[in-house]
Amino acid sequence: MHVSIALLLELGLILTVLSLLGALARRVSLSPIPLYLVAGLTLGEGGLVPVPAAAAFVHAGASIGIVLLLLALGLEFSIGEFAASMRHHLPSAGVDLLLNGIPGAVAGWLLGLDGVGVLALAGATYISSSGIIARLLGDLRRLGNRETPSVLSVLVLEDFSMAAYLPVLAVLASGGLWWQALAGALVAVGAVLAAFAGSFQWGHHIGRLVEHPDDEQLLLRVLGLTMVVAALAEYVHASAAVGAFLVGLTLTGRTAERARAVIAPLRDLFAAVFFLAIGLSVVPADLLPVLPAALVLAVATGLTKILTGWYAASRDGVNRRGRLRAGAALIARGEFSIVIVGLTGPQLPTLAPLVTAYVFVLAVTGPLITRFAGARHPRRPVDQQRESSSALRIGRCSWPARGDRCGDAPDFHQRICLAGRSAVLGRRVPAGLAVDGGGVAQHLVGVRGAAGRGT
């Protein structure tokens, strides 16, 4: 078998650079996403160090990366909880569409684009990046935050809307008739709704099918099922990310716990490749002429996304700081906007550079804004003790993720929250929850025991 020396060398150098950038980002308490994007910009066509041999692998790996990111995100929640959250956030989806689609449509009209161009630019400014935001929430340890269900509900409803939008745009961009576009949208939406209903009704059977005591078998079964479902979702012009997310939602209990563990290394590898691929798709020379217009549009729609997240989180009773975090998390644009450009690029050559520059600006600045917007200030130990008592009195998490877990973010609040709920429910506090010298978790159990004795 012939081995490409150039491919191995380029991949080795790429992974080494990503490793160094990731270590640098962690050292300064930032998400590595912006650095990965800039690295892709320097390695792509017209960049400082082109990587022609590895480019095909990177673009193929990017498709796998977005699927694994959304699969891992779906594994954090149960489909019943998420379905209820989505129904609750239908008004948020309407606000999202109006606040973020209209600026793109107005910009397209001012730039003199035709109807298809206006529709395309409206879609590019409307849709956030599920891949970037999914990784960002994990990097910033916010999967257990109260505002996270609001963010995820908005994201998934956006992805569902793409099932109707993309077929319409594809038909109109190719010169098709309106009834053909409508028929394609109805088929795609029907397929997504059927898949969601099937996951809700029979998802527990899927868990039994993929469960296996051997980790290798579990990994192969989960990945095989996920890739097939993602491909079917893409075939009906829905999102592969939505298909992967639905698979994650259907797996529960011990199966979900083990699946998260076995896919984590692959997810991290291909997620880094996904962010690199976004940068590789950008030609630096094409950005400069359209950069002023892209910056104006980025500022306007960044603010409208903050308003969207603020409104969505307010419907869940989240405080002001959490609402700001929710809005900032939605700023990043990415893969869907690039897909929209791909559908209309040949017919509208002036649109591709503008949207590419717009996506790159928000893909880089969005994670940075999210890192600092609404960040919690360090609290004194006495404040942490008060929070532990509050968690015990309430006896619930701010977001019930799966079972009795409070998400995977290993911060003080989530450990206290879990310990408090375990104590209230009379369950053993899981190992590893001891904090502050081991006193808080034991204190919670002691208080619960005292309460049970009537003291």
List keywords for this structure.
globular, 455 residues, disordered C terminus, mainly alpha, 19 helices
Structure report:
With 455 residues, this protein is an all-alpha fold. Helix content is 75%, strand content 0%. Helix 10 (215-235) packs across helix 12 and helix 18 (412-424) packs parallel to helix 19. The chain is globular and about 60 Å long. It starts with a helix and ends with a helix. Mean pLDDT is 78; it is low at 380-455.
Shape: globular
Low-confidence stretches: 380-455
Q: Using DSSP, what is the number of strands?
A: 0
Cα separation of the termini: 75 Å
Question: Helical segment tally?
Answer: 19
> Roughly what fraction of the amino acids lie in strands?
under 5%
Elements, N to C (H/E) = HHHHHHHHHHHHHHHHHHH
Radius of gyration: 23 Å
SS-derived structural category = mainly alpha
Helix content: over 70%
Overall mean confidence score, pLDDT:
78
- Largest sheet at a glance? none
